[in-house]
Write a structure and sequence with these properties.
CATH architecture of the largest domain: Orthogonal Bundle
Number of strands: 6
Oligomer: single chain
CATH topology of the largest domain: Arc Repressor Mutant, subunit A
Helix content: 25-40%
Order of helices and strands: EEEHEHHEHHEH
Number of domains: 2
Number of helices: 6
């Protein structure tokens, strides 16, 4: 399947990348210090990927707004090829968590009709291919603690993302 990728420089964060097919967004790569690190990761995962710096301009603009501390609307189609129905349901429920808000793993499980499925939700979040756009950083443990984060920087990065959103919410009130 043909795919394209774009690398975006995020001020103060480094570079992030995303990959899309004709069906939609396939993957988001969280910020790394160098453009080469993102390019290497994309080429490792999508050998036939072709760079297109005009790819999904609305998504690129939304990501720039997000990392500048502004609420961003990630209205984009996804290519969930090869993903399980459970994971897709979990990611779609996660997308409905509002900017600056959180939900617990258990709450997401209930929302998709799987009460008691908090651990399975955690697994789905841990292999979310489109972080930020699918805001898995907004999913926390039932006691309010952050839980895990499998992206670069781990829980510290999750904490920074939540703080970024909280600061933007405070300014906009």
């Amino acid at each position: 399947m043909e795919c394209w990728y774009r690398i975006v420089e995020i001020e103060g964060q480094g570079f992030l990348g995303f990959v899309a097919t004709e069906r939609g967004l396939r993957r988001v790569y969280l910020p790394e210090r160098s453009r080469a690190a993102i390019q290497s990761a994309v080429q490792r995962d999508f050998r036939n990927g072709v760079e297109d710096q005009e790819l999904l301009p609305e998504l690129a603009a939304a990501l720039l707004r997000y990392f500048a501390g502004e609420p961003a609307d990630f209205a984009v189609r996804f290519d969930w090829s090869g993903q399980s129905c459970f994971d897709i349901d979990a990611w779609n429920a996660c997308r409905r968590i509002g900017y600056g808000r959180t939900a617990t793993y258990g709450e997401l499980a209930e929302r998709i009709g799987r009460p008691g499925g908090a651990r399975a939700i955690g697994m789905a979040m841990s292999h979310n291919p489109c972080p930020i756009v699918v805001p898995c950083h907004r999913v926390v443990k039932s006691d309010g603690s952050l839980g895990g984060y499998s992206g670069p920087g781990g829980v510290d990065f999750k904490r920074r993302l939540l703080a970024l959103e909280a600061a933007a919410e405070t300014v906009s009130v």
